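ok trying this again, last paste got cut off
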Amino acid sequence: MKRHFILLGMLAVLAACNEQTVRKEGFGVHGIDVSHYQKQVDWQKVAAQDVHFAFVKASEGQSMQDTVFCKNWDAMRSAGILRGAYHFFRPSVSAELQARNFLSIIDLQHGDLPPVLDVEVTDGYSAEQVAQGVKTWLKLVEAAYLVKPVIYSNQKFYNQYLAKQLSGYPVWVARYTNIWSPEIADGNSWSFWQYGNRGRLHGIAGDVDFNVFNGSLADLESLTICRPAPLLDKIPDIPTIPKAAQPAPPETHALPGEPVAANP
């Protein structure tokens, strides 16, 4: 009987990954996330299809910045979509330098969603080393915008490496399934659920990730940055970091990184 349930679970996962993602029923607030992989996005058309929020990739590591971020960022706001931006975290790179990279490109305004840290790989570092770098990035970015950032990861990675050490932050979890909702370890709950990566919308050529918010539109709006001008006129500077500052090389590869679940 146990083997039967395991087989059914594997088949459900395969089906969710290989079939076109259908908008999930039972949720009132829907969103997407994009990066340069989606290339050109017609945000006016996207907004007309009951897409309430969207996250866009801003940066990765120490210096990579998404090539279409600025265009997407402005167009999302013009289309009336609640917008947010994320940074793809590399444990092998100084967390301070990564925070500096993100803050150098992003200009969060009153009404925008909190900044997001996408954590999906270990780069061969231990769970403790990964968590320490993540904590540093979160602390610096939270100090800049006075709002708790959101942590994004796939369910397995979050539960294995982050849940015990990073409580108190909103969680955006990737779990591709048509049967189960996310199960977050250690009593944590999820705010956003990326439930599929093969959604289709007018205005986007090709597949796009589909997400839902765990609450009402009013609940989502309550998470946005509430700092009207002139409070956001100047973002605090990141402390000066020595050029040589970076994590020590990993001593073990016993904790391999997970496959990237979404738009890296």
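PB: full thing came through this time. The beta strands are 30-34, 53-60, 64-65, 82-88, 116-118, 150-154, 171-174, 192-199, 208-213.
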